[in-house]
Backbone:
């Protein structure tokens, strides 16, 4: 039975589910659920333009593209966010209407001596890049010392954050 | 015999793109949405190829290929996957012979694309045989690559390109294997190597694999000594993959274990991981009294921390012996989290300096209780290269003669 009552309940049999891997991104305009799993120091950036019903998710791994050689823009916080936003615009979203929610950037297993771990730097660069683009971060679940898995619901714009040994949070 | 890192990366990329092409052909034919999850090159014992396939019935298609690159390639899937595929291709007709022809047809389309991709890149012709339908339980389904004449040592271990294909709707096992003849592949890699600067002595990787095996045996001995559970080292292998594919080496189930950073030549990270049930079982073997809890308690995790420490020492000592260097490590940090989330911060730390990574994996298990432990090491690539070079110069005789002697 399908119920179209506009509630947050999505019908699993009709909603498309798109899995976003590490250093990958995807965009949907049909209310699909975008998921990504096993974020440690990585960050999931969920961007939405409600007016056109577009949502996108990128799973970035390292802070800045210019620190490392290597071609895949979705691997890095700065170029990953830029690429996602460009792809959102390509499907008709307007940057001025976009909002962002972010999760991840744990500092678990950070062996760096100066305390500036990759998780925290990832979070900083994601926020700076979004700020430069005037896209507000409306909600976040960042840091800590645990892993996370994300589910970004295209129908509601909710970002559901699941962690090991903890209740899930809805951003 | 040296191969540069760049060409390892290129070959890995080639296998990945080939698998993507093959998967796209399959998706187009059947309308089933699938994507290539991971592609890696693994150096592994011939006997251990496909060891991760469990005791289910697998079917697939196999080709021989020859030309500038020769060997075998196979598309392998579990039974339920083949049924779904065949059904998508020939709706309503699930007779066994149709299933076989369906798998063969899909296999033919997928694998031709895969091999053509290689031929294009290498600017050469690679001929392949007609597809052969294969079936078997677990790893028996995988074709053994041809034995090199004269029983050359180099044939004991093979480079295997493995792509795992993920099907978005269902959890199914679907793989593309490519098993090039060892000499054919290494000759080709050398032809495509363009600098000597970052070259890795590829024959030394085999010795390194043996070291890992001995290290794992030592670690297993330590477990046996501490717990009284007879534990055996199983598979040891070294793989090469893109940094972003490194965290996918571990499943996303919950793991318990320890992580250390080791320093020396090479430096890197070492993980000892247990699935939750194994962790509970092995920890209880260490505890003086019975624990009345289904959950992992602090007592359990304390025992795991101790065990992780002793296993790490055993493993690292094994390495240090051969390399004749001291390998120090930090105190173990206890982790209990999603597998992929444990590995991703480590991959990211290594990934600040390199685009690809070597991953050393080994496993131990026991028949006594439900118990399995994994050891993963993530060395700094450049330092690993230097270590291998040194190994060649200083210990070449010993290591080539018999790695066993070094661990007495």
Residues:
């Amino acid at each position: 039975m399908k119920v179209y009552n506009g509630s947050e309940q999505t019908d699993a049999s009709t909603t498309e589910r798109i899995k976003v891997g590490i250093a990958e991104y995807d965009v949907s305009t049909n209310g699909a659920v975008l998921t990504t799993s096993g974020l440690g120091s990585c960050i999931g950036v969920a961007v939405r333009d409600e007016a056109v019903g577009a949502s996108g998710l990128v799973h970035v791994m390292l802070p800045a593209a210019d620190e490392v050689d290597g071609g895949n823009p979705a691997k890095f916080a700065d170029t990953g966010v830029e690429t996602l936003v460009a792809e959102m615009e390509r499907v008709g979203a307007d940057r001025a209407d976009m909002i962002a929610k972010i999760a991840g950037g744990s500092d678990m297993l950070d062996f760096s001596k100066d305390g500036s771990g990759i998780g925290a730097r990832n979070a900083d660069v994601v926020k700076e890049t979004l700020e430069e683009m005037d896209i507000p971060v409306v909600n976040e679940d960042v840091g800590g010392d645990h892993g996370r898995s994300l589910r970004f619901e295209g129908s509601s714009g909710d970002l559901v954050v699941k962690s090991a040994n903890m209740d899930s949070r809805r951003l | 015999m040296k191969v540069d890192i760049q060409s390892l990366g290129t070959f890995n990329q080639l296998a990945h793109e080939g698998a993507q092409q093959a998967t796209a052909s399959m998706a187009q034919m059947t309308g089933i949405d699938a994507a290539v999850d991971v592609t890696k090159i693994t150096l592994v014992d011939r006997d251990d190829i496909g060891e991760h396939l469990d005791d289910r019935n697998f079917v697939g298609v196999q080709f021989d290929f020859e030309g500038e690159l020769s060997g075998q390639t196979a598309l392998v899937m579990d039974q339920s996957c083949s049924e779904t595929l065949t059904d998508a291709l020939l709706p309503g007709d699930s007779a066994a012979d149709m299933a076989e022809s369906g798998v063969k047809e899909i296999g033919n389309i997928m694998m031709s694309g895969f091999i053509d991709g290689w031929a294009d890149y290498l600017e050469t012709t690679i001929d392949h045989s007609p597809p052969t339908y294969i079936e078997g339980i677990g790893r028996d389904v995988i074709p053994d690559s041809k034995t090199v004449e004269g029983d050359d040592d180099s044939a004991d271990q093979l480079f295997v390109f493995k792509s795992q294909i993920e099907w978005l709707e269902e959890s199914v096992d679907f793989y593309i294997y490519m098993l090039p003849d060892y000499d054919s592949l290494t000759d080709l890699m050398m032809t495509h190597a363009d600098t000597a600067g970052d070259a890795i002595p590829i024959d030394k990787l085999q010795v390194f694999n043996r070291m890992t095996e001995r290290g794992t045996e030592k670690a297993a001995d330590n477990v046996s000594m501490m717990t009284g559970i007879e534990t055996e080292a199983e598979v040891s292998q070294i793989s090469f993959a893109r940094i972003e594919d490194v965290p996918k080496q571990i499943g996303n189930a919950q793991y318990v274990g320890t992580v250390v950073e080791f320093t020396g030549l090479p430096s890197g990270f070492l993980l000892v991981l247990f699935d939750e049930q194994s962790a509970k079982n092995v920890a209880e073997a260490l505890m003086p009294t019975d624990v009345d809890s289904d959950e992992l308690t602090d007592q359990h995790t304390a025992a795991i921390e101790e065990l992780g420490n002793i296993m790490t020492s055993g493993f690292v000592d094994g390495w240090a012996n051969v390399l004749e260097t001291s390998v120090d490590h930090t105190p173990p940090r206890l982790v209990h989290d999603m597998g992929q989330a444990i590995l991703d911060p480590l991959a990211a730390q290594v990934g600040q300096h390199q685009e690809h990574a070597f991953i050393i994996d080994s496993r131990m298990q026991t028949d006594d209780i439900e118990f399995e432990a994994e050891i993963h090491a993530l060395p700094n690539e450049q330092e690993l290269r230097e270590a291998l070079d040194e190994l060649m110069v200083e210990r070449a005789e010993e290591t080539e003669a018999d790695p066993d002697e070094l661990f007495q």
